[in-house]
Amino acid sequence: MSPQPRLIRFTSRISLLALLAALGAVTWSTPAQARTPGGVIGVGYYDHQGPPPWVDTACKYTAVYKPCHCPPPTVANFDSAMGCSNESQAWADRDALNSCTNLCARAAKDSPGGGNGNNNGGVAGRPGGSTTGGISLGGAGTLAARESGGYVAFVPFSLEPIGHAEQKEQLAEALVEATSVPWVFLEGMGESIQWEDPKGSAAFVQAYWSDRGAPNPIGHCKHSLQVSCPLQDVKLGDSLQVCSGESDEDAQKIAETSCAPLRYDALSRSWNTWGVFGYHHEGPYRAPTATVLAVGPQQFLGFVPSSMEAMGPYEDWSKLADELLERTEGTSVWLAGPPKFYSAKE
């Protein structure tokens, strides 16, 4: 395929940013360090109802951060946050504030308008060089167009932008440097996106509905392909278009690894996330890597961004959480679904 300028048409968009806005910040250690018993790190709740009783009794040290008011237009199912630790009061104090910040960012993604309404597609871009194929969206930043002109960049769990610029390509590279994630979510850029790629190594992936036709690739796309992707159940289209300036092999690897993280992102918007479970460790922050979802009393499903299949159902949610942590080599997972379902059997 000969290189030529192309435009991409947004027949619809999904705020993948919100997903990324929704990724939480918890401390990271190596998997070998993370094999001590895990526990609840933090929860959000309404003050007049109090935290889930089973959480309160399970925590040796607790701290409350209130009011935990998320910036509008976020609609949250909590107004207070509690930090929980069985190690020290200092950890509980730290995680009370962290829980408020992290859960507010998560709620922003789930709120009406947080995903741009009933959108059906979305775009993620890799502005830099090769990533040896594949796509990794966890912890990625978001590049959004401003109504007044130019662009603004956000990193996960930050309510303030890290910068503004007139050139989206430069700002996207700054996001990659800030997050250490090679992919960036592109949001609110109209019906078409032009992209300058002087290095000839950028890549993009877009979800779309096949019955509306495949969009044109972004920018100077030398290698593009379309693949089916079973995303219909989450209103995210049923196909993917992948574009790579590097090679056909790079485009193919991206296509093979895109469906699962896009589906995980879309599904998570309806899960009513309210807590974080994991391990306390010093070191750089890392986002929760999976989700435990309560679907009934003592009935739990596990979701990871790299798989189209849910784990479970499990009766013991803490066992599922530990297995998710081991599978993803992470230090925390989201807790979602009705908190009452997590209480012990009577």
List the helices and strands and how they pair.
Blueprint: E1 5-6, H1 16-21, E2 26-27, E3 39-45, H2 53-58, E4 61-65, E5 80-85, H3 89-110, E6 122-126, E7 141-145, E8 151-154, E9 163-165, H4 168-179, E10 184-187, E11 203-208, E12 219-220, E13 223-228, E14 239-244, H5 248-256, H6 259-267, E15 273-278, E16 285-286, E17 291-296, E18 299-303, E19 311-314, H7 317-328, E20 332-336
Parallel strand pairs: 7-10, 17-20
Antiparallel strand pairs: 1-12, 2-16, 3-5, 3-15, 4-5, 6-10, 6-11, 7-8, 8-9, 11-14, 13-14, 15-20, 17-18, 18-19
Comma- or semicolon-separated keywords:
346 residues; alpha+beta; eight-stranded mixed sheet; 7 helices; 20 strands; disordered N terminus; Lipoprotein; signal
Radius of gyration of CA atoms, rounded to a whole number: 20 Å
| Rounded mean pLDDT score | 79
Based on the structure, what is the oligomeric state of the protein chains? single chain
Beta strand % = 25-35%
Shape annotation: globular
Largest sheet: 8 strands, mixed
- What is the number of E strands? 20
Poorly predicted spans: 1-35, 113-120
End-to-end separation? 65 Å
Question: What string gives the helices and strands in order?
Answer: EHEEHEEHEEEEHEEEEEHHEEEEEHE
Number of helices: 7
Query: Into which percent range does the helicity of residues fall?
Result: 10-25%
Number of domains as seen in the coordinates: 4
Protein name: Lipoprotein
Organism: Myxococcus llanfairpwllgwyngyllgogerychwyrndrobwllllantysiliogogogochensis
Keywords: Signal
